[in-house]
Structures are given as structure tokens and as C-alpha cells.
Design brief:
The chain has 19 helices and 20 strands. By secondary structure, it is α+β, with helices and mostly antiparallel strands. The protein has a domain of 243 residues. Helix 3 runs parallel beside helix 5, helix 12 runs antiparallel to helix 14 and helix 12 packs across helix 17. The protein binds glycine.
């Protein structure tokens, strides 16, 4: 009796374990799951399913990325978007890699002091609220440009799931209901009493249906007329009317001129891994490679995960990298960014020369380095690998949650408040506390600096990981830690995503951390070293895929959100 009970228990545990680790055809998982034909990991179950739906009918990773991107604009409106911008990093099965920059741009009327008053004082929240806070949207041109070059399926097929979700609606999650209730007053204020789909009489509850018929009509215009369906025609007219009403500066000419740009990826080596990531106007790829180079000589795996020794090293590297970011990074179409110098291993090691294990160096004694002598909250990420081994890593954003919360009347989409990512005055912190200067000053048609870090990692020349995160300034450090969790600390993909995170960005001189990142005794030890610590409920939201030998695709969906792995 006792023996059979133990056997039963063992079989039950084994069943639960295997169910969590492997997935038969078409299964989907909130947490980790392993597939062999294709995987999509995104911030919303309906968007992950949209990507897999397209993979199953013969679409490749780019088709799936376009389907997931448009679906997120519908079912994850706090960050998924057509009114914002983002970045895509692609690696084809043959190893060719490239990136697509569809970051928003400052309107042509914009100028360096547009968010300052006559005395040069920053006008509070002017770069965050209202139509003036919006950059010229890039997402639609970006997704269509990627689809034109690499998609296999018709636009009609890849946009079908998003249009269906917008027309018929979808059940919202508990987290979404809470957020919509929390932002109710902001939506009312931003839209001056015009009805928007995100506000209803009664409070939202989990499982309520959110339908967006106006957004469905806009998506159909894009499906039928391509970029002209958004940057021209009635949708553009609706956007211009919104600008006129809200005293925004985006014009028909801004929309006509907007084009996504293919850029060469930024690349770096870390041990046996090759990092392929986003170059400027994101700071993400440069910063990630700098961080990896700075920690590379130290025995992190021996020191252990998030031990005071490891945290000390990583934080001291982070301070230096964010100081460099503030000085050197900006839109490469406007300023010379010394990318190769900043990511050179020699420069990164020189920046760490004064580092001594166990010693805290205050941010005030750290300034940006000098690479020249050697010659010169809210965002969302999704990762996709298809059956042929093509990989796509996309991070996209409206900047803060629901952007500026203005819904374009008649066209149903939210506008971004990305202008706040510029340095609106030298040294003045943006909403993520990041400071900047000349390199990231506002100029007409310029792209604002970003921290988005969509990344693909190769191991010994083969596809190994697709990774990225939302989280403003914490994006870079979330991606950094996730990569180290796998490469240095031997974690599986889901474990690496789940693990507690911490973050330092030079200014303020503070380690932000999640409760589960440090044990109580490690916290005491870090304080003893001289660090100031501040707890945050959550840092980053990583959605990633690890490709193991034999081509098994292990998804890791961040449990901090409603994120989901889907595949087959
Ligand atoms: N809006 C956040 C970022 O691009 O870094």
C-alpha cells in the first residue's frame, strides 16, 4: 500500500515535471516550454498565438514577427503599438544578421528648447503629456519594411489575427483590468471626454472583452494600402486633426518623410558567444557589449549568482557604461557616436582598471570615459525562432504605459510620448532618471536615444539565444543579467528569466533591486560595501528563447507579466 502510494506520487510528480518542460504539438505555456518547429514569446497570450498561427500556415519568423507586432498593438495597448516605434534584430538561418530601426523621429518643427520656458526652465511633463510629446510613429513602416523584404505570406494573412482581435475583441487579463482602471482618469483627461475603448462606465474586470473597432478599421487600411494606409489617406488625416486639436507638431510632411532604416548590427564577442544587437539610436547594444567586456575577466560563475562579489562587479561596470551613455550616445544620423571605440575590449578593460573586488566607487567620482585616444516604462519585447532557424528579436514602445494616452480620434490608436527620451535639457533627468547632453539633444527629424536592446546571441557560430526586455533604463541591465544567468550560472531559459534582477544606472547612485534578487545577508553585505539600495517591485520583463543542441527551442516567458510562450 505504502509502496504503491510512493510509486503513484513519483509518477504524478514526473508527469507534472515533464508537462512543464516539454510541449507536444501546439501546446502553449505561461512558463518554460520546449518546441521543435517554431516558438513565439511575447507579452500577451493572444499575440504569441497570433505569431504561431502564422508560422503554422507556412510563415517564417519575420511573418510571425509582423503578426505578433500588429497583434500586440491590439491586445497589449500599454506598449504594443502602431503609434510608436521600435527596433528589430534579425538573424537568418544562414547566419546573415541585420537590424531595422523604426524608432520615432522628432517632428520637423522640433527644436532643442521646445520643452523649456523662456527662462530655460523645463516645463513639467510637457515631454510626457499631450500631443507635443509624440514623435513621428515608425512601427507601421518598420513592420511593413521587414515584411516586404523577408515575408513569405501576404499582408492579408499576417495581419488577419490582429484585425480579428480588434474587431471581435479579446478577454483582458487581471493585470490589464487593474491597469485600465488605474489609468481611467488619465485617459479621460488626455482625450477630453471623447469616448475611447479603454474607458467604460463600470470598472474593468478580468475576462471582460476589449474590442477596438476604430483600430480594426485602421489596420484594414494598412492591410489594403500598405504604408500609404497609415502615413497617407484618412488615417493620416485623423492623426493630423488630432495634432491640430492637441497643439502637437507632427505634420503631413513628417508622415510623408518617415522611413525605417536598415542598420548594421553592433557586434561583440563574450567568451565563446557572439552578441548581435541594436546599434544607435539605441544605446542598448553598445551598452550590453561594454558590460559583457567589463565583467569578462572575472570568475563570475565561481563567485556565484547575485553574491555581493558578483553584484559589486556588475554594478561598478554599470555605472561606467551609463556615464558613457549620457555623454556619447545619440542618433548616428546627427552625431558621431564612437561605437567601435566604446565597445572595444581594450577600452572597456581600461574603464575597469580601478575596480577592486569589494570596493564601492561613488558615481560622483566616475565620469564618462574617453574612448577617442584610440582613434576614433513601458515597452514590450518579443522573441521568435521559426522551424528553419530564422530568428527575430523585436522591442517596441510608446515610451511610458499607453504612451501619452491620447487615442487618435476615428483611428483608434494610441500615440507615443517618446520625445521624453531626448535630453530635453543637458543634465535634466528624463522619466527613467537618465541624463544626457548634446549628443541626444532635440533636432528636427532626429531620433531620440533609446535603451532598447533586442539581441541575438550565437554560440560557436550557431544561433543560441534570442532575448530582450522592456523597462526603460533597466532594459540593458535586464538583458545583461539574463545572458549571464545562462552563460555563467548555468540556468535554463525560464529560470534565467525568472531570476531576481538588480540595476544601477550611474545616476542616481543607487542599486535598484527586486526582493528576490538578494538574500537578506547579501543586502547587508552590499550596504557594508557602501552601496545605497532601493527595492522595486519588478525590473524588466524578459521574453527569450534558447536554442539547444539538436535544435530544441526553449522559450522563457517572464512571470512578472502575462507573458506566454507559444509554439509547436
Ligand atoms: N522609451 C524607452 C526607450 O526607448 O529606451
Amino acid at each position: 500500500m505504502r509502496t504503491s502510494g510512493i510509486i503513484f506520487l513519483f509518477v504524478a510528480v514526473l508527469f507534472v515535471f515533464l508537462r512543464g518542460c516539454t510541449s507536444p504539438e501546439g501546446q502553449e505555456e505561461r512558463g518554460s516550454a520546449v518546441f521543435s518547429h517554431g516558438v513565439v514569446v511575447s507579452a500577451h497570450p493572444a499575440a504569441s498565438r497570433a505569431g504561431v498561427e502564422v508560422l503554422r500556415v507556412g510563415g517564417n519568423a519575420v511573418d510571425a514577427a509582423v503578426a505578433t507586432g500588429f497583434a500586440l498593438a491590439v491586445c497589449y495597448p500599454r506598449a504594443g503599438n502602431i503609434g510608436g516605434g521600435g527596433f528589430m534584430v534579425l538573424r537568418l538561418a544562414d547566419g546573415t544578421a541585420m537590424t531595422l530601426d523604426f524608432r520615432e523621429k522628432a517632428p520637423l518643427k522640433a527644436h532643442e528648447r521646445m520643452f523649456q520656458d523662456e527662462q530655460g526652465k523645463v516645463i513639467p511633463r510637457a515631454s510626457l503629456d499631450g500631443s507635443l510629446a509624440a514623435g513621428v510613429p515608425g512601427s507601421v513602416d518598420g513592420l511593413l519594411t521587414a515584411h516586404n523584404r523577408y515575408g513569405h505570406l501576404t499582408l492579408e494573412k499576417v495581419m488577419a489575427p490582429a484585425i480579428r482581435l480588434a474587431e471581435k475583441g479579446f478577454p483582458i487579463t487581471r493585470k490589464q483590468a487593474d491597469a485600465l482602471n488605474r489609468y481611467r482618469d488619465d485617459f479621460l483627461k488626455a482625450n477630453k471626454g471623447i469616448p475611447v475603448p479603454f474607458v467604460k462606465e463600470e470598472p474593468w474586470r478580468q475576462g471582460d472583452t476589449l474590442a477596438q473597432p476604430e483600430l480594426a478599421a485602421t489596420l484594414k487600411a494598412i492591410r489594403d494600402y500598405g504604408r500609404e494606409g497609415f502615413y497617407g489617406g484618412w488615417v493620416a488625416e485623423a492623426l493630423i486633426r488630432q495634432m491640430e486639436k492637441g497643439e502637437g507638431w507632427i505634420t503631413r510632411e513628417d508622415l510623408r518623410q518617415y522611413r525605417a532604416v536598415w542598420r548594421k548590427p553592433v557586434r561583440g564577442e563574450f567568451k565563446e558567444y557572439s552578441i548581435i544587437s541594436m546599434p544607435p539610436p539605441s544605446s542598448g547594444g553598445v551598452a550590453l557589449i561594454q558590460l559583457l567586456h567589463m565583467v569578462e575577466p572575472y570568475p563570475l560563475s565561481e563567485w556565484g549568482w547575485n553574491t555581493p562579489m558578483s553584484v559589486n562587479l556588475m554594478v561598478e561596470a554599470e555605472k561606467r557604461v551609463y556615464a558613457d551613455r549620457a555623454k556619447y550616445l545619440g542618433d548616428p544620423d546627427f552625431v558621431k557616436v564612437p561605437v567601435e571605440e566604446l565597445i572595444s575590449r581594450e577600452y572597456c578593460l581600461r574603464r575597469m582598471r580601478v575596480f577592486r573586488p569589494g570596493k564601492m566607487i561613488p558615481s560622483d567620482s566616475i565620469a564618462a570615459g574617453d574612448p577617442y585616444p584610440y582613434e576614433s516604462e513601458e515597452t514590450t519585447h518579443y522573441s521568435i525562432v521559426d522551424g528553419e532557424g530564422n530568428a527575430v528579436s523585436v522591442t517596441t514602445t510608446l515610451n511610458r504605459s499607453y504612451g501619452n494616452k491620447v487615442v487618435v480620434e476615428g483611428a483608434g490608436f494610441l500615440l507615443n510620448n517618446e520625445m521624453d527620451d531626448f535630453s530635453i535639457k543637458p543634465g535634466y533627468p528624463n522619466s527613467f532618471g537618465l541624463v544626457g547632453g548634446k549628443a541626444n539633444a532635440i533636432a528636427p527629424g532626429k531620433r531620440m536615444l533609446s535603451s532598447m536592446t533586442p539581441t541575438i546571441v550565437e554560440k560557436e557560430g550557431k544561433l543560441f539565444m534570442v532575448v530582450g526586455s522592456p523597462g526603460g533604463s533597466t532594459i540593458i541591465t535586464s538583458v545583461f543579467q539574463t545572458i549571464l544567468n545562462v552563460t555563467e550560472h548555468g540556468m535554463g531559459m525560464q529560470e534565467a528569466v525568472n531570476a531576481g534582477r538588480f540595476h544601477h544606472q550611474w545616476r542616481p547612485d543607487m542599486i535598484f533591486y527586486e526582493q528576490k534578487a538578494f538574500s537578506p545577508s547579501d543586502t547587508v553585505e552590499l550596504v557594508r560595501m557602501g552601496y545605497r539600495l532601493k527595492k522595486r517591485t519588478s525590473i524588466g520583463r524578459v521574453d527569450a528563447i534558447r536554442v539547444s543542441s539538436g535544435r530544441s527551442l526553449e522559450g522563457g516567458a517572464d512571470p512578472r507579466g502575462d507573458d506566454m510562450v507559444a509554439g509547436y
